[in-house]
Amino acid sequence: TYWNVNQGEQRASAQDIAEAASLLRQGDTVAFPTETVYGLGADATNTEAVLQIFAAKGRPSDNPLIVHIADVTQLSGLVQSDSLTAYHQVLMKAFWPGPLTIVLPVRAGSLSPFVTAGLQTVGIRIPDHPVALQLLREAGLPIAAPSANSSGRPSPTLASHVRDDLDGKIGGIVDGGATGVGVESTVIQLVDGELYVLRPGGVTAEQLQEVLPDMHIHVAEPTEVEAADTPRAPGMKYTHYAPKGYMHIVQGDDELEVIAWIQRDIDAAKSRGESTGILTFEERVGGYRADLVVACGSLSQPETIARDLYAALRTFDHKGISYIVAEGVPDAGIGSAIMNRLLKAAGHERVIL
Ligand code: TXA
Ligand code: MG
Fold first, then answer.
1. Ligand 1 within 6 A of 39 CB?
2. How far is the CA of 75 from the centre of ligand 2 (A)?
3. pLDDT tens digit sequence for 153-174
4. Cβ neighbours, 10 Å, residue 261
5. Among 10, 88, 234, 290, which one has the highest count of C-beta atoms within 10 angstroms of its own C-beta?
6. Is the four-CA dihedral 105, 73, 145, 295 of positive or negative sign?
């Protein structure tokens, strides 16, 4: 795998971009940074290229891919133009480039049918990352790109995460440093004038409501989101983002009770011979004893929790932790996306005190 190393900088040289774009035009796969997570890109119009994404990730072929474009002018070639409403225009103006994927009726014949997994719709977004935008412009193609992890693993927020999962299976990696938002884009669809959040993500329901004050926004419960998130791959739904060890979530309103409960739980696991880990936040990291205690962002700034979440989940595997307890977060704002991913990672095992 060709790996361009920019030493963590949010930019790439013109030559790096040119090489990566030429790989994409030749039908090869290239991982690249976006503001959410690294994506594994391929020419969305080329079925052979798209099939390489599914092969490299071990992704079930009935789970559709998001298409990335550099500019709204590319949209008319990909979707049915009469499907774009004033609401869509408001959303695109407010959140593109950015972590919002909009599901629209696909224009027949414009994309490989494997991108949409046979659906009549396609999810599209313009990423807000200078390297992604440069690459998309230089390639001059709509680029299908799921997260650049092995299917079921935490999504990559560093180029090294991509290499850990996919080295030897893809054409190259463009390194643009740490991604920033840390959780994937929000996937939405407008149906009969109402807005459905199919996957919570970097744009919050509150932000959507702010730009469309009169819109009825359906935010599914986490279990319903599972079904909508991977509409035709229900078998995958409980293994996403999971560390290798057993993990469950503990949450409650009384901070001291939560800390005491988790410590007893961890001590009991330790005495059974488990290697123990706790996923918590900067404010609370000093209160715990375990083989590995990870401070994932700060409760006072939930966006830092989202930013650090997937890297934190990966550290438990690096240390061979077999029993993990994760603290939950309040289910508001970006917290909805964080809880959605944590619940998936924990196979929905949760204790509410
Ligand atoms: O932030 C992101 O969205 C990242 C970066 C790389 O852009 N991409 C990403 O892709 O997360 P992926 O493939 O890991 O997740 C795509 C999600 C899946 O849950 C898929 O089921 C849903 O979007 N999706 C894609 N097309 C859809 C469609 N036509 N209808 C409903 N859901 C769709
Ligand atoms: Mg993914």
1. yes
2. 23
3. 999 999 999 999 999 999 999 9
4. 17
5. 290
6. negative
